[in-house]
Description:
Layout: E1 2-7, E2 12-15, E3 20-30, E4 33-43, E5 48-53, E6 60-64, H1 74-84, E7 92-96
Antiparallel strand pairs: 1-4, 2-5, 3-4, 3-7, 5-6
Protein name: Ferredoxin
Organism: Kaistia dalseonensis
Amino acid sequence: MYLILTTKPGQFKTEITDGLTAVESYDYIFYGHKRANFTIAEIKDPVRITIIEDAPPRIVNKVPSKLFEKFETLDEARHELHTLTTYGSMDIELRPA
């Protein structure tokens, strides 16, 4: 199974922890500016995903993976990522990181 992890520079980062394997990573470029990074990760067993806020006091959240949408195949995860990052004719690019 696969899931999509998000990091937004200046706001929060999502860490790859035990039980997750990063498969692909993309920078989300919106009108020439990097706004986020998306990582498709493979998950085999339920885990807690670590999300750390960038601003002090740098709060750490450990979110159960059951709260994330999961995809049976890598192609399904890629399709969802494309759907999430496409809107009409806006200048949006997913660039391999």
